[in-house]
Amino acid sequence: MSEEKVIQHSKKALKALKSPDKTWLEKIKEFLGEILIIVLAVSITLLFHNWNDERHEKKLAREFLQGIRNDLKGSADDIEASVKTFQPTVDYYNEVWKEVKMHKINAAYVDSNADYLMNTNYFIFDDSRFEGFKSSGYLRLIENQELLKHLVILYSSYMPFERDADMNVFRTRERDYNTYIGIKGTEYSENIGVSKLLNDPAVRYQILRYVFIFDERKRHKLQLAKRLRIMVAEIDEELKK
Questions:
Q1: What is the dihedral of CA 58, 63, 66, 71, to 10 degrees?
Q2: With b meaning 16 or more CB within 10 Å and e meaning fewer, what string describes 19-43?
Q3: Which residue in 44, 49, 78, 128 has a CA-CA distance of 20 to 30 Å to 220?
């Protein structure tokens, strides 16, 4: 009921009480009748608004889940693609360390592929949709509390951890390169190559260290990609309801 209609019925109710041509019983009946009309109309209006708001909120939640599902699938695809792209770097470190252990250095291979010593592969993810929904206070619209918990953990813990881990690893490796390799005159050249420095214990340690670190980073990223795909499947199940 519009505000104008409420005012009209309120006036009728007051007018009924003031009518000199009616008995008190008639006045009260007419007054209560108008009040009942107002109460019923307002109640129906509130129920309609609540229903409409609930439908709108369900739509918002569904659109968010559909969008976040695509975001997570895209991140999983990106992780798996980046792992493949970075694999030659992992292979380089493993091969150089193998040659060091066997005391059979293939200088041509080590030096011609020395650019892998500074190759990077950062994990980057877009959390704008999640953060926007969160900052708007809309996370409360996700009725499945288990699903919500898994989403929050992903965006607040697992994904930031992998992003920060990459930043730390590659920042540290750049510092290590400058300290133990670059400062000793090694350039990305076949003439002045890394192979000449592999007798240095500090250089050998850097190779071994990143053999383990990059293998670990690969394992962690593939685990995250698997976790993201599980989350996508969980959202798909929720969207079927």
A1: -130
A2: eeeeeeeebeebbeebeebbeeeee
A3: 128
